[in-house]
Design goal:
151 residues; alpha/beta; Rossmann fold; five-stranded parallel sheet; 5 helices; 5 strands; binds 1,3,4-trihydroxy-5-OXO-cyclohexanecarboxylic acid
Length: 151
């Protein structure tokens, strides 16, 4: 049976491949998604990218309602600002792993505050596209849906 996982990417991540390759690498988001599909044939992926918190929140709610087993979330810049996105992660009974391509801890001061991360199972930062694979691996190994109580 395939494991349903949602992979959410926030603002500007649609520009991967051309956006600051020295920081984010040269893989496009489509390439990252294809790599995940190939590496995890046992997973039924739903991929989604949006520029705004609202659309990402709607997708988290839908994943929760649709009984996804978990979600991988790169909130982009919203990671540092969005209380609403954090509240959505806390509200759904889904394990969510936050991913950052870059090591945000080694960057500007304004990236040091991770608003969403505290509601997530954990965070992978600075490992490039492999961070998504590691997050998926964690969720696959964690197994069943509804591992957390909604908060
Ligand atoms: C990012 C890090 C964020 O600080 C930044 O705003 C992004 C990308 C990353 O994947 O490294 O858009 O989430």
């Amino acid at each position: 049976m395939s494991l349903p996982l949602t992979v959410l990417n926030g603002p500007n991540l649609n520009l991967l491949g051309e956006r600051a390759p020295g920081t984010y690498g040269d893989a496009t988001l489509a390439e990252i998604e294809e790599t995940l599909r190939a590496a995890f044939p046992e997973v039924d992926f739903a991929f989604f990218q949006a520029s705004g918190a609202g659309a990402l929140i709607d997708r988290l709610h839908a994943a929760h309602a649709g009984k996804a087993a978990g979600a991988v979330l790169n909130p982009g810049g919203l990671a540092h600002t969005s209380v609403a996105l954090r509240d959505a992660v806390a509200a759904v009974a889904l394990p969510v792993v936050e991913v950052h391509l870059s090591n945000v801890h080694a960057r500007e001061d304004f990236r040091q505050r991770l608003v969403v991360a505290g509601a997530c199972e954990g965070v992978v930062a600075g490992l490039g596209p492999r961070g998504y694979s590691l997050a998926v691996r964690f969720l696959v190994e964690s197994g069943s849906p509804g591992a957390r109580e909604p908060g």
